[in-house]
TrEMBL record, chains A, B:
One of its GO terms (molecular function) is zinc ion binding. Keywords: Cytoplasm, Hydrolase, Metal-binding, Zinc. Residues 1-116 form the CMP/dCMP-type deaminase domain. Pathway: Pyrimidine metabolism. Gene3D superfamilies: Cytidine Deaminase, domain 2. GO terms for biological process: nucleobase-containing small molecule metabolic process; pyrimidine-containing compound metabolic process. PROSITE patterns: CYT_DCMP_DEAMINASES_1 (PS00903), CYT_DCMP_DEAMINASES_2 (PS51747). This is Cytosine deaminase. It is found in: Cytoplasm. Homodimer.
Length: 145, 145
């Protein structure tokens, strides 16, 4: 597996070990990971810190010029919130671990010129499938269902 | 002015007094304000806590059924991130103070069935105009420019 998607998956596993929703993300700028994060709904009672949002938050305040040279790696297809955030900051490329367990706003991203790559990684999917089977109500809450 | 938009404007003013970006929001459920917030970029170094996001975060974890009965009031037209969040949680209505200083994803929201009302309030606009004139670089950072 790509080292960056691997790092995102490590974040997802960290979330799972904490009892949280196992979705992880890393923000990569010119080959360097500048932000890592994972979903914090359970751990912090957060409704905004999805994995992608947590990675961006941990990267801190950045000028627009940096975001425009970034790739966002995420273990799961980005929901409307995270997709909107990708559009807000003009992140040009997103690499998605899997979209079997949830299909986010990939079409909207592509329609706005974002490059979207779906790896379809079995480990990313297996971790989410396990969590959804164990705690379906927490997962549904996370996606507004 | 509508009491809820007034409450959102009070949040925006609080943000301005703290040296932050003056955008405020309240989440209203069946006539009751259940979350208040304002942009925290400057105060907390946050890249995700726009006014709308902060109001949702402060409302805490809610079941989907509650969001579906909510109205989100915001002093400024919601950016792609905040609009995506409105879609994620299925909030059916958004009341916007003004969209003179920034026009967000109102068309996307409407295309997905969200009721969008623009009040065009002069006080909301004046506060943003003042901030943008004073700190244009902070404002540009907030909208990824």
């Amino acid at each position: 597996m790509d080292q960056y998607l691997q790092a995102a998956l490590e974040e997802a596993r960290k979330g799972y070990e904490e009892g949280g929703i196992p979705i992880g993300s890393v923000l990569v700028h010119q080959g360097n990971i500048i932000g890592r994060g994972h979903n914090k709904r359970v751990q912090q009672g957060s409704v905004v810190l999805h994995g992608e949002m947590d990675a961006l938050e941990n990267a801190g305040r950045l000028p627009a010029s940096v975001y425009r040279e970034c790739v966002l790696y995420t273990t799961l297809s980005p929901c409307p919130m995270c997709s909107g955030t990708i559009l807000l900051y003009g992140i040009p490329k997103v690499v998605i671990g899997e979209n079997r367990t949830f299909k986010g706003e990939e079409d909207l991203l592509r329609s706005r010129g974002v490059a979207v790559e779906v790896v379809d990684d079995a480990d990313c999917a297996a971790l989410m499938q396990r969590f959804i089977a164990e705690k379906p109500e927490v997962w549904n809450e996370d996606i507004g269902v």
